Amino acid sequence: MRVSPASPMYASARLFLSLRALGAPANVIMLAVQGIFRGFKDTKTPVLFIGLGNVSAVVLLPLLIYGFKLGITGAAISTVASQYIIAILLMWSLGKRAVLLPPRMDQLEFGGYLKSGGMLLGRTLSILLTMTIGTSMAARQGPTAMAAHQ
After folding, report:
1. 109 pLDDT band (50/70/90 cuts)?
2. What was the pLDDT predicted at 149?
3. What is the DSSP letter of 102?
4. 93, 83 Cβ separation under 8 angstroms
5. Which of 71, 74, 78 is nearest to 55 (CA)?
6. Collapsing DSSP states into helix, strand and coil, what is residue 33?
7. CA-CA distance, 75 to 59, in Å (whole number)?
8. Residues 83, 28: contact at Cβ < 8 Å?
9. How far apart are CA 121 and CA 91, in angstroms?
10. Quick check: 3 pLDDT over 90?
């Protein structure tokens, strides 16, 4: 994020981002499965499970930050845990509606996945890039601007 190592936010931001990176696989699964549910014309199920995941984060945040006195580490752990909760719930629900893997691996049609996933990948990357640039710009302004951005 180009925050100076001299910044009071540097150590905390580095720790938080390092721990938050553990949630990236769950985030990718979550986004992909949401797209599948949209294809089923079902937006209610993802919203329900995302809501449950967010409630788990709301419960875990104060518990880990203040109860267990983990501070920024607790914030990152609660966020990652909620992402995995959402991903697991979505995959479980999807498994009840569709066959997730074909009987044989040679029956997978990766070409079709790559064609249909290209636009989703582009959209996701553009959203992440925009958020990353905005966060980086706020972080370079100092702790007050970064707190306001968050």
Report:
1. confident
2. 86
3. -
4. no
5. 78
6. helix
7. 11
8. no
9. 19
10. no
Tell me if the pTM is above 0.90: no
pLDDT tens digit string along 41-85? Answer: 999 999 999 999 999 999 999 999 999 999 999 999 999 999 999
> In whole angstroms, how far apart are CA 127 and each of 12, 43, 45, 124, 133?
24, 20, 23, 5, 10
Token pair belonging to 135: 């966060």
For the chain, how many helices (H) and strands (E)?
A: 6, 0
Token pair 């580095």 is at which residue?
A: 14
By CB atoms closer than 10 A (0-12, 13-18, 19+), residue 122 is: exposed
CB 134 within 8 A of CB 140: no
Record the tokens describing residue 65, joined without a space: 């930050």
Residue 78 CA, chain-centre distance (Å), reads 12
Return all residues near 101 (Cβ < 8 A) that are at least 6 apart.
none
Backbone φ and ψ of 20, nearest 5°: -65, -25
